[in-house]
């Protein structure tokens, strides 16, 4: 039996990665700061910045290390200092690293304009520690320059049970609030490629079997429009909503969703199929139900602002539940 160590194994991505590895016959350890039920995996309690905790987690060496929560090269450094105990690695990065030919990306004033599906050789932001995207590139470079064969996975908008920043809450809460209309900016045609945690679990499983230095996009088989995402979430909740589209940018929250982008973000997935024989475990419509079920259950047990702190932080974009402003817009446009 081979040994895998998953850092962040009790969180959203870990919930999919750990069972995928266990089912594939791996002996799995999880490094976690708090006690958690990880489905038969061994839990090593401790912080990743604690040298003693890392030494315990890596005791005897591991065949593959999976890091699903690192932000930049500072999280890679303590692990790479122990590279002699790591056979191979799989590290979660982000599609947010990409920039277009003009150098525009996800964090620039001008949103990127990609000519088509984004392949892994698309330019990225420069590595650094001053933003999410630059930190992820620094993380990638640290592992890529090491002697540890490392698969870098670049997901899009992640969805799945256990998410602290659940974009789907935008539509789930509307159903729970009895709101039967979905008002969507950019004519509802925005496409921000989604990634199920089940997709990441399967790609980690395959990459663990076949170590190597590579970068792979990780996303659902098809990049849905926001109209299609809204319909899929509604279907998972057993409702049908009226769709109203708004041309152009959201205004005062009207039309705003976490997938509302002025130009499409679609990831090319061919390399994962070619290098790992990857086949998706299902499309967004097939996998989002587990996320929706978890959101409803979690929100029924405690205040959603406490349960989903990442979503609260996303409200810097605007009010995702601007019902009063929507009603005014709907009345004026009727």
Task: Name some characteristics of this structure.
334 residues, globular, two-stranded parallel ribbon, alpha/beta, single chain, 11 strands
Please outline what is shown here.
With 334 residues, the chain is α/β, with parallel strands linked by helices. The protein has twelve helices and eleven strands.
- Percent of residues in helices comes to 25-40%
Biggest beta sheet attributes: 7 strands, parallel
The tally of helices reads: 12
Give the CA-based shape.
globular
Going across the major beta sheet, what is the strand order? 3-2-1-4-5-6-10
Distance between the termini: 65 Å
Radius of gyration over all CA atoms, rounded: 20 Å
Query: Which whole number gives the mean pLDDT?
Result: 96
Question: Class by helix and strand content?
Answer: alpha/beta
Estimate the strand proportion: 15-25%
Order of helices and strands: EHEEHEHEHEEHEEHEHEHHHHH
Please provide the count of β strands: 11
User: Which regions contain 5 or more consecutive residues with pLDDT less than 50?
Assistant: none
Describe it for me?
With 334 residues, the protein is of the alpha/beta class. Helix content is 35%, strand content 16%. It has 12 helices and 11 strands. Helix 1 links the parallel strand 1 (3-7) and strand 2. The longest helix has 18 residues, at 284-301. The model has no long low-confidence stretch (mean pLDDT 96).
